[in-house]
Design brief:
By secondary structure, this protein is of the alpha/beta class. The protein contains 13 helices and seven strands. Helix 5 runs antiparallel to helix 6, helix 7 crosses helix 8 and helix 11 packs antiparallel against helix 12. The longest helix is centred in the C-terminal third of the chain and has 22 residues. One of its GO terms (molecular function) is phosphatidylinositol-3,5-bisphosphate 3-phosphatase activity.
Length: 414
């Protein structure tokens, strides 16, 4: 995903080319990058559900059902769920959600109590299976904010893709099964489309940029089109919660790629805390690392198989979306934009033990530590850039601008 190309010039008479090649190969593609041995940093884990959100309360509770990752090995150990849903209910719902990724709380509006929930697709299949426990659970979520509006479900996928997923046992929520919910498809394409889009983008900027055909070449990559779709989807989520006073449920297929993009971007729009350097760290740890984004597979560092179909610039795309927001609305100051660049740089480090594992014994704990292991590095680099703003970005949570008014255009970095 890193577009930089490094070249080494070696003298032929030195006979050192093979030795250097072997050393580079050893460090670039370590045989042990997928073992369960990692670099850890002794640090206190972030409190994911801030007391400022008033959680837990009479409508929402913290469950320890996943304390040992027995319910879902790609979810954090602590989950916030509706108070009226028992742990037995959660187990039954898990059986009907892909990879047991049940609907859980990401964010709650401090005033109207509408919430952003996240999960994976329901296991409907070609036969249109139903699950009364799942249907009841979504009703409990809808009722938890005290509003009479329907629960809004945002399926990140194109409609045709969601239908196609039925053939492999997946699918989406039907109106018949969920009469108190409304479903919208956001038309965001899958990891394979995004991977090819980035490849095309790299081709038009490296090794040379043809300025005479720049606009047509850029359009042919569809990169900005994808960025706009992700941002538009996040705006819909944020607007529905803020202005529509309706709770929303966000999912894609497995709920760890497009879902993470949408929930975290919407939370950035709605909550000024996540627009601080510390808050942004927490956001990435919570919505990306702890909820199971496959950093190792998506980045692909340490793996010689460059044709691996699991590689995709999902996190890079999220950072690009945040950069678009920073240029137009939220953070018209240089420090935050520098932070985004530093995060991307350290995200590309091919260091076994940082971001290069998906299948460790305690997967979520490892994901927590992954970014913590990088935190000191990029904070040090921020200091080197002489950032003296006390790691704070202008507080814009009280702005009267609604999420739907925030994004006017998207642009490239070139």
């Amino acid at each position: 995903m890193d577009m930089r190309n490094l070249r080494f010039a070696l003298k032929q008479e030195g006979h050192s080319r093979r030795d250097i090649f072997e050393v580079l190969t050893k460090h670039a593609f370590p045989q042990s990058h997928n073992l369960n041995t990692y670099i850890y940093v002794s640090a206190k884990l972030w409190v994911l559900y801030n007391v400022l959100q008033g959680l837990p309360n009479e409508r929402w509770r913290v469950t320890f059902i996943n304390e040992h990752y027995g319910l879902c090995d790609t979810y954090p150990s602590l989950l916030v769920v509706p108070y009226n849903a028992t742990d037995d209910d959660l187990k039954k719902v898990a059986a009907f959600r892909s990879r047991n990724r049940i609907p859980v709380l990401s964010w709650i509006h401090p005033e109207n109590q509408a919430v952003i929930m996240r999960c994976s697709q329901p296991l409907v299949g070609m036969s249109g299976k139903r699950n009364k426990d799942d249907e009841r659970y979504l009703d409990i979520i809808r009722e938890a904010n005290g509003q009479i509006s329907k629960l809004t479900i945002y399926d990140a996928r194109p409609n045709v893709n969601a239908v196609a997923n039925k053939a492999t046992g997946g699918g989406y929520e039907s109106e018949d099964a969920y009469p108190n919910a409304e479903l919208f498809f956001l038309d965001i394409h899958n990891i394979h489309v995004m991977r090819e889009s980035l490849k095309k983008l790299k081709d038009i900027v490296y090794p040379n940029v043809e300025e005479s055909h720049w606009l047509s070449s850029l359009e042919s990559t569809h990169w900005l089109e994808h960025i706009k779709l992700v941002l538009t989807g996040a705006i819909q989520v944020a607007d529905k919660v803020s202005s529509g006073r309706s709770s929303v449920l966000v999912h894609c297929s497995d709920g760890w790629d497009r879902t993470a993009q949408l929930t975290s971007l919407a939370m950035l729009m709605l909550d000024s805390y996540y627009r601080t350097i510390e808050g942004f760290e927490v956001l990435v740890q919570k919505e990306w690392i702890s909820f199971g984004h496959k950093f190792a597979s998506r980045i692909g560092h340490g793996d010689k198989n460059h044709a691996d179909a699991d590689r995709s610039p999902i996190f890079l795309q999220f950072i690009d979306c945040v950069w678009q927001m920073s240029k137009q609305v939220f953070y018209k100051v240089r420090p935050f934009q520098l932070l985004l660049l530093i995060i991307l740089q350290v995200n590309q480090i091919s260091n076994p033990g940082m971001l290069l594992s998906n299948d460790q014994p305690n997967p979520v704990e490892q994901r927590y530590m992954e970014l913590l292991a990088l935190r000191d590095d990029y904070m040090r680099r921020l200091e080197e850039l002489q950032i003296t703003n006390n790691s704070k970005i202008p507080n814009s949570s009280a702005s009267s601008t609604s999420p739907s008014q925030m994004m006017s255009q998207v642009q490239t970095h070139f």
